[in-house]
Amino acid sequence: MGKKDKITADPMSQFRKKQKEKEKKKGKVDRVKGKQSRLESMDPNEVREKIRKLEQEEHNGALDGSGRQKKQELEDTLRQVLRKKAETEAELKSKQASLQPIPATVKSKKELEALNAKTYKNPEKSEHYHPIFNPFGAAPPPGHAPPSAAGGFPGAHLNLRNDKLGQVHLALPFTSQCL
Fold first, then answer.
1. Do 50 and 74 touch, CB atoms closer than 8 A?
2. Would the N or C end of the chain have less CB density within 10 A of its end CB?
3. Per residue in 54-76, pLDDT tens?
4. In a domain? residue 46
């Protein structure tokens, strides 16, 4: 009976043990994510105000052991909030620095053409190029159908009619007369 630590031959108990370990790991990850999101949403000024109130109580002598512990937790939380804010600001700055700077205003048509030529090199080589409708050869936004050679559906360029002599052409069941 005291041999619970040893591996048993029962596969179901091993399976349950593994599932329990997975749940513990998942719970830990969820707690960490929740804590991070709470830290991001906290306002440091509110935490500082709570600490000031507890310090005033401590100065007046009305603060007990649990109050001191609460003050210590708030100070730790404040440090974490400030660290998280600094991390998010640094991350935001690095993202902004990595983006290509776009001039605020284009003064002349030549500057605009130079910027477009730099941005869209060799548009004629793009499969999306059209001299009138898409002169820069830019791809359509995600979710839009790719351009087709003819028609608006795949296989529109195929000849699906039987044009051999002696074959009968079947009419579609829904014609304009049916509607």
1. yes
2. N
3. 899 888 888 888 888 999 999 99
4. yes
The token pair at 3 is 């041999």
Q: How many domains does the chain have?
A: 1
Range of the domain at 34: 14-98
Q: Does the residue 127 lie in any domain? A: no
Residue 137 counted as domain residue: no
Check if the beta carbon of residue 159 is closer than 8 Å to that of residue 150.
no
Question: What would the pLDDT profile of 132-167 be if each residue is shown by its tens digit?
Answer: 888 877 777 777 766 554 455 555 555 566 566 555
CA 143 to chain centre: 17
Residue 160 inside a domain? The answer is no
- First-to-last C-alpha distance (Å) of the chain: 80
DSSP at 146? P
Q: How many degrees, rounded to 5, is the angle at CA 95 between CA 93 and CA 101? A: 95
Classify 91 as helix, strand or coil: helix
Residue range 36-47, pLDDT digits in tens: 888 888 889 999
Joined together, the tokens standing for residue 114 give 């130079």
